[in-house]
Amino acid sequence: MSQTTQIPCEGPSPDRSDARPHRDSFIDDFRRFFVRGLAALLPTLITILLLVKLWEILWDYLGRHIIWIIKQLSVRPDRPVAQVKSLWDYTLSLWLVELIGVVLAIVLVYVVGLFVGNFIGRTAWRLAETGLMRIPLIRFIYPAVKQVTDFVLADRKRHLPGSRVVAVQPHASGIWSIGLVTGPGIRSLAESIGQEMVTVFIPSSPTAFSGYVVVVPRQSVVELPLTVEEAMRLLLTGGVITPGQSKTIAEPLRQPQRPDSQPQLNPLPLPPTT
User: Fold this and answer.
1) Residue range 228-248: mean pLDDT, rounded
2) 166 within a domain of the structure (yes/no)
3) Which of 228, 196, 237, 233 has its CA nearest to residue 215?
4) What's the CATH code of the domain at 221?
5) How far apart are CA 218 and CA 197, in angstroms?
6) What is the C-alpha R_g of the chain?
7) pLDDT of residue 57
């Protein structure tokens, strides 16, 4: 009786090439680490660039002229122009002259701030602005520039003491925009429609210092538990940097309601009208 030997059938051998770990190419490694390095260095480089530009503005538009005035005032009968010029142009190094000019420019800006900070200075400054507004070309450029500088550099604690961060629907239902309550609405508009209105400034992103203004009913805005600085940081980064969710909030966030229902919200404190 013959015995049959069965040989076990083995399946196809696994492809050992698939088990090898995948290694990125040099181009992939270079791109990945270059992006990481750029992300680490870019904030510092941009900060240095802004400081350098600020230095150049202070020197080119203020410091250089202050040094020129000092040169003219230093000329005396016993100290001729050639001696003064030799002192500033040859004896002192160029970086030291620029440093003196920039420091004097900063002092000048501080003195101007002190001057316009009191009543007499503000009155004189407003009279000067009124005179500038009578010049044909300047009166079209100066107001727009002044609005931008006032928004960027003005003291928000004094000008917007009651500014609140809110969400509004300026375009369509269900699409919310972040804005700042800057004041009460137009009185004639509120009287014509019979509702209390508020003025909301909606910044653009990422240029949060520009935007547009809407006048909306007070009941149609949703108050957000954010500060003005947190809202600006959110807009400047395009939503990448969001405020911490673990922050303790004194007042709970109001959830947006459906368009067919009127949201019941707490009244918003408004900044005093000027």
Assistant:
1) 69
2) yes
3) 196
4) 2.30.30
5) 5
6) 32
7) 93
**Does residue 5 surpass a pLDDT of 70?**
no
Work out the angle between the directed axes of helices 94-116 and 119-132 (0-180°, nearest 10): 100
- From the list 235, 233, 225, 219, the residue with the least C-alpha distance to 177 is 235
In a domain, 257, yes or no: no
* Higher per-residue confidence, 177 vs 58: 58
Residue 185: domain span: 157-236
* Residue 205 within any structural domain of the chain: yes
How confident is the model over 199-210, as a mean pLDDT?
77
Round to whole Å and give the CA distance between 254 and 261: 14
Output the furthest CA–CA distance in the chain (Å, rounded): 139
Task: In whole angstroms, give the CA distance from residue 179 to residue 204.
Answer: 10
Q: Three-state SS for 166? A: strand
Specify the DSSP class assigned to residue 183: E
Say if 105 falls within a structural domain.
no
Domains contained in the chain, number = 1
Instruction: Indicate the pLDDT class of residue 262, thresholds 50, 70 and 90.
Output: very low
